[in-house]
Amino acid sequence: MKTLSSRSDGPERRKWPRVNLTLNGVVRFDPSPAPTAARVANVSARGLFLAMDTPQQKGTRLSVDLYIPDEQITLKGMVVRSIPGAGAGAGVFLTVVDERWTNFCASLSDPTLRVLDEGSSGPQREGAG
Description:
By secondary structure, the protein is mainly β. It has a single domain, classed as Thrombin, subunit H. It contains 1 helix and 8 strands, in the order ββββββαββ. The radius of gyration is 14 Å and the shape is globular. The two termini are 14 Å apart. Residues 1-9 and 113-129 have low confidence and may be disordered.
């Protein structure tokens, strides 16, 4: 069982704090419409980290369909950081979000939430499910 937590290696400088959370989804990098399976390693209201073997270049635009409890949300963004090698992936600034994403991210700061094991539908309240 993995507990949701904010990153704690020094003072948080981000306007929207990150939460370590694994989500599955599908990403499409512009200009290719081909879908690619995606694993998100952490999220914030305006960003996320896509864990991937071969990260895209900084400036690449994308859309990502994420599966959160009981629904799918499509977000649009741009790669702002590309990390090769161990821990490879791409830091993404979200340029288009909707109220469902904002509400989902706000719910992650709720201390009664926990992340279930791989394959779960997402965070659940303690004692639920």
